[in-house]
Hints:
heterodimer; A: D-Maltodextrin-Binding Protein, domain 2; D-Maltodextrin-Binding Protein, domain 2; B: MetI-like fold; 26 helices; 80% helix
Amino acid sequence: MQKLTGLLLGAATLALAAPVLAEDSSDPIIIPTHNWSSQIVMSNVVGQMFEGMGNSVEYVSTDSQAVYEAIRLGDATLELEVWEGAFGKSFNAALEKGGIEDVATHQAITREDWWYPMWTKEACPGLPDWQALNDCAAKFATPETGEKGRFLGGPVDWLKHDAEKVDALGMNFTVVNAGSAAALWAEIAAAEKDKTPIVVFNWTPNFAEAVWPGEFVNFPAWEAGCDTDPAKGPIPDKTFDCGNPANGYLKIAAWDGMKDKWPKAYAALQKVNFTNAQIAEMAKLVDVDGMEPEDAAAEWMQANEAVWKPWTE
Amino acid sequence: MMTATLPPPPLRLDQKRIALAFLLAALVLVIFRPALPAGLIRLPEGLILPFADWINATFAFARDELGLMTVTRAFSDMVEACLDVTANLLYGKSRWPYVGPIPWAVIAATAGMAGYALGGARLALLAGGTFVWIAVMGQWKWAMETLSVIVVAVPFSVVFGLLMGTLAWRSRLAERILNPILNIAQSLPHFAYMIPVVVFIGVGPKAGAIVTIIFSVPPMIRMTLLGLRGVSPEIIESGKMSGTTRLQLMTRVRLPAARTEILIGVNQVIMQSLAMVVLASFIGMPGLGQKLLQLLQALKIGLSVEIGITIVLLAIVLDRMSKAWAVKQPEHATGPWLYRHRLLLIWLGLVALGFVLAWVHPYFSEVGRKQALSMAEPVDAAVGVLIEMISPVTDWLRWFLITWVLIPLRDAFLWLPTTAVLLALAGIGWRVGGLRSALVCLAFALPIALSGWWDRAMITVYTVFVSVALALILGVPLGLLGAVNEARSRRFLLVCDTFQTFPSFIYLIPVIMLFGVNDVAVIAAVVVFATVPIVRYTIEGLRGIPPEIVESAQMSGASPMQLLRHVKLPLAVPTLVVGANQSIMFSLFMVIIAAFIGTQDLGQEMQRALSSTDVGKGLVLGFAVAFMGLLADHLLLKWAHGRGVALRSS
C-alpha cells in the first residue's frame, strides 16, 4: 500500500511539478551503523528525524572502513561520523573513485592520541607532559616489554604511527597493538581494579571519558608536515616527532545520488551538526545508562528539540 | 579424505631411511644456521610470488569482463526478496506482505508444537521454553532478525547441497573436482569468505545470508553424496521393477532411502549457520550477532552472556529437532480424519490463542526492553569476583609463560630456516605415508613460503602448537574423568556442545582482563576451543572400546591403572588423533578471531584485508591457514589410519 501511494505520488509529482518541488523517493534511506554507540545513536537521531519528515529509513550494520565502498555504490546512503584520523584515508580513497560526497562538517572536533586514566597520575605526577611520562616508563613495564614501558596502541590498521613517534622522540616505550577497541577497554577496566598505571590509545568524543576520567598526553604540538618533513617538529632529523592534530574533523558523507533521490532529506542532512558535548551525551545514554540506541535517540530528541527541529525546516 | 593404500611391507625400511635422511638434512640446516646464506633461511625476495595480485586480477576480470557482477547481483536480489518476506513476518520490516510481525506467543507455541511432533513432551518444553526465554529477556527483535536470515539461508544451502551432492554422485569427474574444493572450503577461515562477498554482493542482511549459505553448504554436499551412495542395490532394483522413470527413481526411491544421511546434512547446515551468526554481522547480518558485538564494545559482559545463552539455546533446539526428525521414520497413521490431524488442530488452536493473547495485551506481542528480565548484573558481578579471585595466579602465570615459555618458543619458531622446516615436513610426510605424503606435505607448505607470509604463518603455527599442547594436557584427563560412566559422559558432552556453540567473542574480553593484550590471552582464548574436541574424542574413544576386551583384561588381573595404560589408551589412540586433528582445526579458526585481542600473525593481516576489502590478500591468507590445517589433517589421519591397521593386525 505504502509503496503504491509512493508510486502514485511520484508519478503525480513527475507529471505536475517535478522541477518546482521535488518530492523524496519512498525508497528507504539506508543508514549504516557501526559498533560504537555514539554513531548508532546519532544515526537513529537523524533516522528518526527523516522519518518525522515522512521518509522511510532502514539501518544496516557494517564495517566502519568498508562502509565507504558501500556508500559509493549506493548500497548505503550516508555516514554521519567520518573521523579524520580513523577513516580519513578510506573516505578520501572513496572520494577519488567517485560516487560519494562530503556533505557537511560537524562542529565537534576529534582528537586521537596517547591517553591515560586519572589514577595513572598518582604513579607519575609530572603528567600530562610527555617527558614526565618517559621518565616513569618503568612504571608501565609488563612482562612482554621487559624494562621498557608499554604503550597499548589501537589495531594496526588504524595506522597511528605510534612506533615512529616512540622512535623519533627517543622514548623508553614499546608499542603493543591491541586488536580491537574492545581490547583497549578491557585493559583499562582491568587496570582500574588495582589502579595500575596504564597509557593507551584513545580518542574523543567517546564513551570512555564518561566511564574513566582521564587526559591526553601532551606531546610537542602538531604542525602540518610533521609526519613527512623531518625539519618540522622539535627533533631536526625525525618525522613524527609531535602529537596528533588536536582538532581533527568529523564529517558527514553521503552517496552522490542522494540529493536527487531524497532532495528534502539531503537538504536537512546538510544542516546536521553536532558538538562534542552532544555526542558524549548520546554515547552516555547507551553506555552508562544502559538504554537501547533507538530509545536513547528518542529521548535525546525530546530533550533537544531546539537543536534538531531547525534542521528539518 | 586422501586415502592411499599402505605401501607393501618390503618398502617400509626404505621409507624409514629416506624419512630419516630428510630429517637429518633439516637438522644440519638448523645446526649450521649461522653459516647459511640468507636465501636458505628465508626464501629470497625474487622467489616470492604475487599470488594476491593474480587473484585480484582474476576477480577484476570476472567482475568487469565476464559480467559476474550481474549474476551475483541477480542472485543476491533473489535472496533479498526472500529475506524481505521473512523480515516482514518475523520482525515487521515494512516489506511485502505487510502482515508481520507475528506475536512471540504464536511463534513460541509453534516451536513447542513442532518439538512435540518430532520428539515428544521434553523437546516441546525445550523448544517452546527457548522462545519464551528469548521473549522475556527482551531479545525478541534481535533473535528474529537473526532467524529471518537463517530461515532463508538454510533452505538455499540444502537445495544447493542436494544438487551438488547429486551431481558428484552422478559424475566421477564432478566428484574429483568438488572434493578438493570442499576440503579447502571447510578449512578456510570465515573471514576469507567474507571479502569476496563484500565485493560481489555488498553489505547487509543479504550478504550475511549469502556468506552463511557458502559456509554451510559443504557438509550438505558430502552427506548427500554419502547417502545416495549408501542406498542398497535391492531397493533400487525393486524401484525399477515397479516401473519408475529416472526422475521418479531419484525423487521417490533414492532420496527417501538416503533420508537419514540427508537429514544429518540438514542438521549440519543448521549448526554451521548458527556458527556464522556473530561473524556474519561484520558484513551486515542484523540481529543477535550485531548486538553482541556492540555490547562487547562497551564491555557489557553480562548482557552479551545473555545473548550467548540465546544462541546456544537456539543451536541446541534446532540440533535436537533436526536430529529427532532424522531418526523419526515416516508414519502412516490410520483412523478418522480428526485423529490423524490432531497435532495440526492443536497447533491451530494454540496459534489462535496466541493471536488472541497478543490482541488482548501487547506483552504477548512483543516484550519491550524496559519490561525485560535481565541477569546481566549478577553475571557482571560474578565475572568481576572471578577475575579478582584468580588474578594473583594469573599475574604470576602471565609473567612465567611470557618470559620462560612463549617468547623463547616464538623466537625459536621464527629462528628456524624455512628450508629446514620444508625438509622436516617432507621427512615426516615420507615417514608417515611414503613419497606421496611427502609430496602432499610440500604441496601444502611450499605455497605458504612462496606467498611471502612465512613469518606470520610461523607465529600462527606457534600459537596453535602451544594451544593444542595445552589442550591435550587439560583435555585428556578431563576426558578420562568424563568417560567413567554413561551418565557422566553425557553431561560432559553437553558441556562440550555448549562451549562449542557459545560465541567465542565473549571469551575474549574476560581473557584480556585476566592476562592483558599479549600472547597469553590469545592462547588462553584458543585453548578454550581447542580443548573441546579433545575431551569429546577422548570420551568417545574410551566409551567405544568393546566391553569384551576390557573384561578379558580384567580377567587376566590388570589393575585399573594397567587397564588404562595398556589396554584402553592404546585402543583409543586412533579416535584421540581424530580429536587432536579437530583441535588443530578449531585452533586455527580461533587464532584468526583472536586477532581481535591483538596478534601479529596471519589473523591480524586477515582483519586488515577485511577492512580494506582486499580480496587477493584475504584469500592468500585464507589459503595459507587452510593449507596448514590440511597438512596437519593429512599427517594425523594417515598416521592414525596406519596405527589403526597395525593395532588390529597385532
